[in-house]
Amino acid sequence: MIDESFIHFCTNESSFLKDKTENMILIQSMTKILALPGLRIGICYASPLICSNISKRLPTWNVNSIAASVYEKAISDEDYIENSKQNIKIWKEKLIYDLSNLEFLNLFSSEANFILIKILDNKNIFDLTQELLIKYKIAVRNCENFSGLSKNFIRIAVRTPEENKKIIDAFSNIFYGTRQRLKSRKKTPSIMFQGTASNVGKSILTAALCRILSQDGIKVAPFKSQNMALNSFVTLNGEEIGRAQALQAQAAKILPDIRMNPILLKPSNEKDSQVIINGKPLNSMNFKDYDQYKPIAFEEVKKSYDSLASEYNVIIIEGAGSASEVNLKKTI
């Protein structure tokens, strides 16, 4: 039996459904991604024989008509599920960032829409959960009865930005009153391969280290702020990045992502290049035009890097043809 109740939240979604065997029971839940736990609607994929045996043990009318109607509508609306997935991803990144700045919390993130938190303060967890509920109308999961966890753990769900801010403020008020004390944020470690010229092996070395770290169980991602190439790799979302970064992503055992190469320049003639920002063609620019656009481009580079760094343990950076990204530096 395989439980895929939270698979809709996974970044690199890969269901066992495509490899289903005769002795496999696969369970998925729609109430998680739809945020409708009261409906209690789910799906069981299995062989006809197993399904028949399960049906004999189910109560009559085990799925109510409202739940069935919602499920029927939901599975036909792929855009809604995808938009929900993307929104939750953005909200979760911001929530993790804000929570990690509170020095009394230690976070354990996951692919699901939950965040496991260890309270580093000596405050009684039962008193904490009661205060959150009674004073702030926020219910969190006390995890002291979870196997392998101590009485210092709670679990919270990813909510809307407005609701997430409420729990940040509540934590700050409970532990520090109205004064929020921030801890220095530990930056994600990174390594950059630099060179003195093009075609000296930086791309291959980056890919090699991505594979080595991945094999050691480290969640690693490649990054190159700007690439220039005649050809590109097209991601599953139809967006373009450098082929080298696609290879490096494969070495890291993750899907290619536009954040790995936010700027791609595709030369069209001796003077102009097609500028691709975040996987999408922007315009054809000459050197002068691009020089004026660089401040905007650099902001996109920083956003992409920070977003990747918030999700991975290590970032492997492929430098440009020199030890500095001279094409993006500020002109003095």
From TrEMBL:
<dbReference type="InterPro" id="IPR004839">
    <property type="entry name" value="Aminotransferase_I/II_large"/>
</dbReference>
<keyword id="KW-0315">Glutamine amidotransferase</keyword>
<feature type="domain" description="Aminotransferase class I/classII large">
    <location>
        <begin position="1"/>
        <end position="171"/>
    </location>
</feature>
<dbReference type="Pfam" id="PF01656">
    <property type="entry name" value="CbiA"/>
</dbReference>
<dbReference type="InterPro" id="IPR015421">
    <property type="entry name" value="PyrdxlP-dep_Trfase_major"/>
</dbReference>
<dbReference type="InterPro" id="IPR015424">
    <property type="entry name" value="PyrdxlP-dep_Trfase"/>
</dbReference>
<dbReference type="GO" id="GO:0009236">
    <property type="term" value="P:cobalamin biosynthetic process"/>
</dbReference>
<keyword id="KW-0808">Transferase</keyword>
<dbReference type="InterPro" id="IPR027417">
    <property type="entry name" value="P-loop_NTPase"/>
</dbReference>
<dbReference type="InterPro" id="IPR002586">
    <property type="entry name" value="CobQ/CobB/MinD/ParA_Nub-bd_dom"/>
</dbReference>
<comment type="similarity">
    <text>Belongs to the class-I pyridoxal-phosphate-dependent aminotransferase family.</text>
</comment>
<dbReference type="Pfam" id="PF00155">
    <property type="entry name" value="Aminotran_1_2"/>
</dbReference>
<feature type="domain" description="CobQ/CobB/MinD/ParA nucleotide binding">
    <location>
        <begin position="191"/>
        <end position="294"/>
    </location>
</feature>
<keyword id="KW-0032">Aminotransferase</keyword>
<dbReference type="GO" id="GO:0008483">
    <property type="term" value="F:transaminase activity"/>
</dbReference>
<dbReference type="GO" id="GO:0030170">
    <property type="term" value="F:pyridoxal phosphate binding"/>
</dbReference>
<dbReference type="InterPro" id="IPR004838">
    <property type="entry name" value="NHTrfase_class1_PyrdxlP-BS"/>
</dbReference>
<dbReference type="InterPro" id="IPR015422">
    <property type="entry name" value="PyrdxlP-dep_Trfase_small"/>
</dbReference>
<protein>
    <recommendedName>
        <fullName>Aminotransferase</fullName>
        <ecNumber>2.6.1.-</ecNumber>
    </recommendedName>
</protein>
